[in-house]
Amino acid sequence: MFSRVSQWIGVLAFGCLSTAALAQELAPDVLVKSVAAEVLEIVRSDKGIWAGNPKRVMDLAEEKVLPHFNFVRMTALAMGPSWRRATPDQQKLVVDQFRTLLVHTYSAGLTAYRNQTVDYKPLRGKPADTEVTVRSEIRQSGAQAIPIDYNMEKTEGGWKVFDVAIGGVSLVTTYRDSFAQEVRANGIDGLIKTLVEKNKQNAGTRK
C-alpha cells in the first residue's frame, strides 16, 4: 500500500525546515534553503545517524522537519471526500497515524543520505501570496536529477508544507489513491486499523 511512498520520503531529507521562530521570519524559499544546510550538516557529521541509530534519526526528523508540515491539511487532502464523512475522533486518529507513518518513513530516508546536493529554482509568486511552490532538484554524480516541489502555505506559525511532488508526482495524491481504496474496502475505521498496523511494523523493524 505504501511501498512507493516510503521510497520517496528519503529525498525529503534534503530540503526542510527548522525552528518555529525562524520559520515565522523567513520567506519560504529562504527557509528551505537555509535549513537544508543545517540538516545536511547534521546528517554528514552525526555518527549515530550514519550507524542507523533509530532514536537519533527519529529525534532529528521530529526536531528539524516534521513541525513544519501541516499534517491536518495533508491528511484532509489525502482522504478526499472521506475526510468530511469522518467523525472528529476518526479525523484525529488518521492525522496521528499518518504523521507517525511519515516520521518512520522520513527517518529511514535520512540514513540513506551520502553525497547528494540540492539546487533551487527561483521562487515564482508575489509577496502577498499565501501559497507558493518551492522548486528544487536533488543531484548526485552519475544519476539523473530528481525534481522536488514543496507546496507551502503561510500560517500564523510560519510557512508549512502541505504537499510534496517528487518527479512530478504528488505525495498527497498517491496517498489519496491508497486511502480511497482502503476506505472503499473497509471503511474509515479500516483505514485507521491499516495505518496502526503499518506503524507497528515500522516500530518493530527499527528496534
The tally of strands reads 5
Q: Per CATH, what is the topology?
A: Nuclear Transport Factor 2, Chain: A
Q: How many DSSP H or I helices?
A: 9
As a whole number of angstroms, the C-alpha radius of gyration is 17 Å
Q: Structural class, from secondary structure content?
A: alpha+beta
Order of helices and strands: HHHHHHHHEEEEEH
Strand order of the largest sheet: 1-2-3-4-5
Rounded to the nearest angstrom, the distance between the terminal CA atoms is 22 Å
Percent range for β-strand residues: 15-25%
CATH architecture: Roll
Strand count, sense and barrel status of the largest sheet are: 5 strands, antiparallel
* Percentage of residues assigned to helices: 55-70%
Q: What's the pLDDT, averaged over the residues? A: 81
Shape: globular
User: What are the low-pLDDT stretches, counting only 5+ consecutive residues below 50?
Assistant: 3-11, 13-20
CATH class designation: Alpha Beta
